[in-house]
Design brief:
Keywords: Hydrolase, Metal-binding, Pyridine nucleotide biosynthesis. This protein is α/β, with parallel strands linked by helices. The chain contains 5 helices and 8 strands. It binds pyrazine-2-carboxylic acid. Pyrazine-2-carboxylic acid binds next to helix 3.
């Protein structure tokens, strides 16, 4: 079975939410995510669902990315993707959340800021249930896209590969926070055996 995975494709990571964590072009990936889902039997999504009381929050973008001495939140970030806010919603053009076969809320613990969708913490101790759900449904291949390529998408793809899935990363279905981060992320994913493809057309041909 093949599953398509929309990782954190939320408004908070697009220019629609300029005060949160806007990623250039983040609101342009819905068509590619929908196209890759056409190649899969199952479609799942993750959503960051942070608390306003999160310990890793800083007030401004200028103070962001400072290392934080919490074992499960390595960097600071401005408030984003708080459950119930506009930024929490999926980007325009995607199905309603209830239309997905499986949905995971991540980043729910106030002292933790995980990137991957498979675990609630940075040390991969607390499963979110994604891996178990995919295995239960006999999924062997996962098609991945979402936001942002150099943080949550990369980490999720690496976690899935480590769990034994064949992982395709659809580059056209992702946008990155930084270009240098994207290059490094792609190298890391390639080294882990993840197959990077240009777009869903290339995915269909492979
Ligand atoms: C993300 C930074 C902070 C992501 C989430 O989804 O890639 N990046 N929080």
């Amino acid at each position: 079975m093949i599953a398509a995975f929309d990782v954190d494709a939320q408004r908070t990571f697009t220019p629609l939410c300029p005060n949160e964590l806007p990623v250039a072009g983040g609101d342009e990936i819905a068509a590619e995510l929908n196209a890759q889902a056409q190649l899969a039997q199952l479609r799942i999504a993750s959503k960051d669902a942070h608390s306003p009381a999160a310990k890793w929050v800083v007030a401004s973008h200028a103070n962001m990315l400072q290392p934080l001495d919490y074992p499960d939140a390595d960097l600071t970030w401005v408030r984003h993707a708080e459950a119930g806010t506009a930024g929490f919603e999926l980007i325009p053009g995607l199905p309603e959340a209830s239309a997905y076969d499986f949905l995971v809320y991540k980043g729910v613990e106030t002292a933790m800021h995980p990137y991957g969708a498979c675990y609630h913490d940075l040390a991969n101790r607390i499963s979110t249930g994604v891996i178990e759900w995919l295995k239960y449904h006999d999924v062997d291949t996962v098609l991945v896209g979402g936001l942002a390529l150099d943080f949550c998408v990369k980490t999720t793809a690496l976690q899935l590969a480590a769990a034994g899935f064949k992982v395709y990363l659809n580059l056209a279905a992702c946008r990155a926070i930084s270009e240098t981060g994207a290059v490094a992320a792609c190298d890391e994913m390639r080294q882990a055996g993840i197959l990077l493809v240009k777009d869903s057309q290339a995915l269909a041909a492979s």
